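Following up on my earlier message about 2'-O-acetyl adenosine-5-diphosphoribose. Here are the inputs again, as you asked, copied directly from the submission form:
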Amino acid sequence: MISDHLTEARARVAAAHSIAVLTGAGISADSGVPTFRGADGLWRNFRAEDLATPDAFARDPRLVWEWYSWRREVIASTEPNPAHHALVRLETRAQRFHLITQNVDGLHRMAGSQHLSELHGNIWEVRCTSCRLVTDNRDVPLSLLPYCHTCGGLLRPHIVWFGEALDDCILAASMHAVESCDVLIVIGTSGLVYPAATLMPIAQSHGGFVIEINLASTAHSSTAALTLQGRARDIVPLLLKE
Ligand code: OAD
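Thanks, got it. Here's what our run produced:
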C-alpha cells in the first residue's frame, strides 16, 4: 500500500511547478528534538500556561527563560536529519518552492533551506520587550535575565506564544504559498495548532494536492489526498529521491 502511495506521491511531486511544504515537530523528532503532544511530548510534562504565554513571562520571566535555556541546550546538541537535507535538495530543483515550518529549532536553516517561513519564530533569536529589536543571541545568561544592548529593555524569546498573533508578513507569505501550490507536503505535525492548521484545507480548496507524512494518523489524514505513514527521516528522502 505504502509503495503505491509513494509511487503516486513521487509522480505528483515530479510534475509540480509549485511545491509548498509544511513541517512540524515530527521532522525534528528524528534529530532528537522532543515533540509537543506525543507520549513524551513537552506539553505532557509541562504546562504551556506557565511557560509559553505573555502572562507567564510577565509573572515570572526567570522561569520562562530557564525553560527556554533548557530547550536551547537540548536543541544545541542536535543536527538536521536526512528529511531536512532532502528538502534542501528539493528546493534547488523545484521551479517554485516555499517551506513553512512551525518548528523553532532552526534545523531547516542549519540544513540550508532558503525560502523558509518560520511561523512560530526561532529559539535562537530574542526580541526586546521595549524597543522590539530582534537579534540573534545564543548566549543568554542563565543566572541573570538578558537585557537589550540598545535600550536596556528586558529580552524575551522571539517565539510566538499561546494567545499571540503570528507575524502578518510571514503568515501572508505562507498563505500565498499554499494557495498557489500544486502540491503541499505536510510533514510531522498533529495539525492542531491554528492558524498553521488552516494551511492544509486552504491548499486543498485552491486545488493543491496534499501529501501527509506522519508516524501516526492525524486530524487531517482522512482529508489529505495521500498519507504516507512512517518516520520523516525515512519517508521524505524516499519521496524526494531524484
Ligand atoms: P505535535 O507534537 O503536536 O505533533 C507532532 C506530530 O509529529 C504528531 O502528529 C506525531 O505523530 C508526528 N511524529 C512524531 N515523530 C515523527 C517522526 N519521526 N516522523 C514523522 N512524524 C512524526 O507538534 P506540532 O504539530 O509541530 O508551538 O505542534 C504545533 C505547535 O504546537 C508547535 O509549533 C508549538 C506547539 O505548541 C509553538 O512553539 C509556538
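One observation from looking it over: The chain has two domains: 2-33+80-120+166-239, 34-77+125-159. Hope that helps, and feel free to reply on this thread.
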